[in-house]
Amino acid sequence: MERNRELKPAHIAIIMDGNGRWAKARGLPRAAGHRAGVEALRRTVRAAGDQGIEWLTVYAFSSENWSRPKAEVSDLMGLLKLFIRRDLAEIHQAGVRVRMIGERDSLAPDIRALVDEAETLTAANSAMNLVIAFNYGARDEIARAARLVAEAAAAGTLDPAEITPESFGQFLDTRLIPDPDLVVRTSGELRLSNFLLWQAAYSELVFLPCYWPDFGAGELAEAIERFRSRERRFGGVVPRDVAL
Ligand code: FPP
Fold it and tell me: Is pLDDT at 36 greater than 60 in this prediction?
C-alpha cells in the first residue's frame, strides 16, 4: 500500500488548544494555563528540530481572540513578548528562522518591534523554520490578499484574467511558506477555527485528546506516526487503483 510510512511531514502546523481547561482541571487561573502553554511550545520547537521537521507553524493568537477578557488578551500579548525576549537567543543559536503571519498593523508598536527583531535576527537561518500565527485569522488573511489583488487590478498592474490559485497565493501572508502537510489540534476539539483555511486544503488532520500544556516530544511523535499511516491523494487516485 502507498502509505507515508517512510515520509516525514515537512511542515507541521499546530492549533495549541486547551490551556484554559488544563488550568481549570488544576484549580488554577487561565493565565497559568497559557504560561504552561509557552513551556509546551518551547518543548515542541526543540522536539520538532530533533525530529527533523523543517517547518513548524503555531497558532498563538487568533483574530477572534481579541474578544476574550482584556486581562487575558494582555496576558497573551505579554507571553509573546516574554517568549521572544527569553527564547530568541536560543532559537537563533539553534539555526531556527522565525516568521510571523497575521495582521500586524493593529498590534502594539512594542510587539511589532519584537517580531521585526526576531525576523531580522534569524533571517539567514535555515536549520528549521518557526512560523508564529499571531493576530491571525484565515478569513482575514484571504480578505487582505483580495484587497491587494483588487488594488493591483485597479492600478492596472494585474490582469484579473490571469488570477489563479497559485498567483493568488502570492498575496497571502504565507507566500514564502509551503502548505502544511499535517495540521494537529490538541484538546479533543474537531475544528480548524479559521486556521490556514487556504493552505490546509490537502493537509492531513490529526486531533489529539491531550491539552496543549501536556504536549511534548512524545505527542509530536504520535502525530507524525498517524500522518505516516495516512494515504495522501491530493484529489487524484493512487497508482494501484488506476489499473482496476
Ligand atoms: C488555546 O487555549 C490557546 C490559546 C488561545 C493561545 C495559545 C497560546 C499559547 C500556547 C501560549 C502563548 C504563546 C505565545 C508565543 C503567545 P484556550 O485558552 O482556548 O483553552 P480552552 O479552550 O481550554 O479554554
Answer: yes
Q: What is the pTM of this model?
A: 0.94
Atom of ligand 1 nearest to the CA of 79: 16
- Give every strand in the sheet of 204-207, ordered side by side: 96-101, 128-136, 55-62, 11-15, 182-185, 204-207
Ligand 1 geometric centre to CA of 157 (Å): 41
Q: Is 18 in the pocket of ligand 1 (CB under 6 A)?
A: yes
Mutate to test the pocket of ligand 1, among 17, 87, 189 (most ligand atoms within 8 A of CB): 17
Q: How far is the CA of 60 from the centre of ligand 1 (A)?
A: 6
Q: Which pLDDT band holds residue 237 (cuts at 50, 70, 90)?
A: confident
- Domains of the chain with bracketed CATH: 11-137+180-228 (3.40.1180.10)
- Is residue 169 over pLDDT 60? yes
Give the pLDDT of residue 1: 44
* Tens digits of residue pLDDT in 87-126: 999 999 999 999 999 999 999 999 999 999 999 999 999 9
> Would you say 190 and 22 are in contact if contact means Cβ atoms under 8 Å apart?
no
Q: Which of 16, 72, 85 to mutate to test the pocket of ligand 1 (most atoms within 8 A of CB)?
A: 16
